[in-house]
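Both lines are retained for reference:
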Amino acid sequence: MKKQTLFTRLSLVLTLLLLVAAVLVGCGEQTPPQTTGTSDVQSAPIAEPIGEGQYTFTFTAIFADGSAKRYTVSTDKEIVGEALLELELIEGEAGPYGLYVKSVCGVVADYDIDGTYWSLYTDGEMSMTGVDTLKSADAKDVEFRVAK
């Protein structure tokens, strides 16, 4: 009988220790996931509006060092890529999958040179379409981020 009582108490103590350890591990400091180049996006100043037209969207360029430029773009172009090319915010070349953007706001990211490229995001999500098929009427927030 004494062995069973001792075993029960020992089991209870071990269970409590495991529970305390689990709580302490779960409450440890957690580092948020790193997203390349987004540190200054919220603090990037909104520039004076650029362009004129019926469609308006926010355009943000996030550079490799984490700095950002933000514009409010107005255009009559129905395609975002056409508007950004016309306003000289992006440059690129036609490829088999559409426009391959190599320069944003004068900053080059070319995979063939250094393994970096410009990644397109719309409304905070990686875009499933290219900038040359994204409709201006559907665009709210357009963002290019340097990726590797």
